[in-house]
C-alpha cells in the first residue's frame, strides 16, 4: 500500500509541475491581434459548420440566439437580471454569475456600470427570457491590455440568460 501511495503522490507532483509549465508558457506567449483574429475566424467558421446562425450587432459583437425571449429589447436605464458564464474560445470558463450568488443571477442597470463595450452592446439584443451566446472580440473587450485572468487580444464568449427586464421608470 505504501508503494501505491508513493506512485500516486509522484503522479500528482508530476501533473502539478506539468500544468504549471503549461500555464507559464501560456502567459509567456501572449497572442497578437492577428492571431486573435485568425482564432476568432476559425471559431466562427466552426460554429457555422455546426449549423449555428450567427448574427452581428452594429458594433461588431457576434451572437447566436439559443432561446427566443419575449417583449421589448433591453435599453439604457433598464434593470436587467441575468445569469451568465464567460469562456475563452477554447472552452475555459473564466467567470460565472454562479460564483457571486446562490441563485446564479446578478442585477444591473444597463449603461450605468463601467462595462466593456461589447457587453453593453450585446445586452441590447436581449428580451426577457432570452438565452444568447455572445462572441466579443478583444477590441470590444479588454484589447491589448487584457484584465486579470484575461490575456491581451482575447476573444470572450458569454452565454447569457435574461431572467428579468424592468424598464426604466
Characteristic terms for this protein:
Chitinase A, domain 3; 30% helix; disordered N terminus; alpha+beta; 169 residues; seven-stranded antiparallel β-sheet
How would you describe this protein?
- The structure is a single chain.
- The protein is of the alpha+beta class and 169 residues long.
- The chain folds into 2 domains: 1-30; 31-166, Chitinase A, domain 3 (Roll), CATH 3.10.50.
- It is 30% helix and 25% strand.
- The chain has helices spanning 2-28, 33-49, 117-123, and strands spanning 55-56, 62-67, 79-88, 93-96, 106-109, 131-136, 156-166.
- Strands 1, 2, 3, 4, 5, 6 and 7 form a 7-stranded antiparallel sheet that branches.
- A hairpin with a 4-residue loop joins strand 3 (79-88) and strand 4.
- It is globular.
- The chain starts with a helix and ends with a strand.
- The model is unreliable at 1-28 (pLDDT under 50).
Q: Determine and state the CATH class of the largest domain.
A: Alpha Beta
Largest sheet composition: 7 strands, antiparallel
CATH architectural grouping of the largest domain? Roll
How would the global form be characterised? globular
Question: What is the total number of structural domains?
Answer: 2
Strand tally? 7
Amino acid at each position: 500500500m505504501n508503494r501505491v501511495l508513493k506512485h500516486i503522490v509522484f503522479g500528482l507532483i508530476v501533473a502539478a509541475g506539468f500544468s504549471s509549465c503549461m500555464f507559464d508558457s501560456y502567459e509567456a506567449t501572449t497572442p497578437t491581434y492577428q492571431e486573435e483574429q485568425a482564432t476568432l475566424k476559425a471559431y466562427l467558421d466552426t460554429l457555422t459548420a455546426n449549423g449555428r446562425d450567427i448574427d452581428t450587432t452594429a458594433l461588431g459583437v457576434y451572437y447566436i440566439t439559443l432561446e427566443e425571449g419575449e417583449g421589448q429589447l433591453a435599453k439604457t436605464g433598464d434593470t436587467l437580471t441575468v445569469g451568465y458564464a464567460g469562456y475563452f474560445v477554447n472552452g475555459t470558463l473564466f467567470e460565472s454569475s454562479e460564483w457571486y450568488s446562490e441563485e446564479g443571477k446578478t442585477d444591473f442597470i444597463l449603461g450605468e456600470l463601467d462595462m466593456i463595450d461589447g457587453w453593453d452592446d450585446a445586452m441590447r439584443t436581449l428580451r426577457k427570457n432570452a438565452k444568447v451566446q455572445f462572441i466579443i472580440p478583444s477590441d470590444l473587450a479588454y484589447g491589448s491590455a487584457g484584465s486579470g485572468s484575461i490575456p491581451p487580444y482575447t476573444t470572450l464568449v458569454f452565454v447569457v440568460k435574461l431572467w428579468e427586464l424592468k424598464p426604466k421608470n
